[in-house]
Hints:
Blueprint: E1 20-29, E2 32-42, E3 47-51, H1 58-65, E4 73-78, E5 81-83, E6 86-88, E7 91-93, H2 97-104, E8 107-110, H3 122-132, H4 138-151, H5 167-179, E9 185-189, H6 197-212, E10 216-220, H7 224-230, E11 233-238, E12 241-246, H8 248-251, H9 258-267
Parallel strand pairs: 3-10, 3-11, 8-9, 9-10
Antiparallel strand pairs: 1-2, 1-4, 4-5, 6-7, 11-12
Helix pairs in contact: 3-4, 3-5, 4-5, 5-6
Bound molecules: adenosine-5'-diphosphate and magnesium ion (MG).
Residues 29, 32, 34, 52, 54-60 line the site of adenosine-5'-diphosphate.
Amino acid sequence: MTATIPQAAPVAATSERPMVEAVEVHKRFGSLEVLKGITLSVERGQVVCLLGPSGSGKSTFLRCINHLEQIDAGMIRVDGETVGYRECNGRLYELREKEVAAQRRKVGMVFQRFNLFPHKTALENVIEAPTQVAGRSRSAAREEAMGLLARVGLADKAGTYPAQLSGGQQQRVAIARALAMRPEVMLFDEPTSALDPELVGDVLDVMRGLAESGMTMIVVTHEIGFAREVGDVAVFMDGGVVVESGAPSQVLVEPREKRTRAFLSKVL
Ligand code: ADP
Ligand code: MG
């Protein structure tokens, strides 16, 4: 049964409330508890870089924010609105499908694998969701998409199919595609991990530009240089918990926790 969602705490004015707020988020797959109480707040315009060993729950956490997974307990809010399930007085409340759809539109996601439609050109990939999901006119979507392709440095590739693009170019199309839905927050899940080293820089440059334009971003990455230069906050996760978080200049340079130091010594 769907019920009205009670508000746990008063929500501040739009400008002050966090863009993404996670409180004690728990998620399990069968007997495996993957998220063991993640609490994290991302302010509007902030770039949060999420680091941690494989299997620590980073992707699962992003997927919960984007409704690709439902949380078992705790609370996630995007732009002040509750996402998915939350526990309240021992009961779980569920969002209506429409509410879920509306919230998902606020969140853009870029995956390690770009997953472009192979039979569609770069431009067609970018206008797909705006025309099919958001119901925008083809001409308006096209115009916006051309602007987005220019923004990711691919204005001249609008008519090109994914197979004719490099991995880095495909990933930049994927970023443009996510931006085409005009999200309030962008989630990146290891966006450069599948790329040849020489293609990583262009993708990171696009992300840097996006950050500079004021986009709120949560970026799972092992690119320590990017996290230090672009990140406002670095969060180190391990075993489904946040081990430490703070300024990248602290967490990534002088970590307090042994587990963070051990991880950094492996990726640096
Ligand atoms: P990370 O992104 O930090 O590498 P993940 O969030 O992908 O970690 O995975 C955390 C753990 O959850 C891993 O042990 C993984 O095998 C498990 N897991 C992730 N998704 C599923 C799923 N759909 N079903 C079962 N186990 C899963
Ligand atoms: Mg992952």
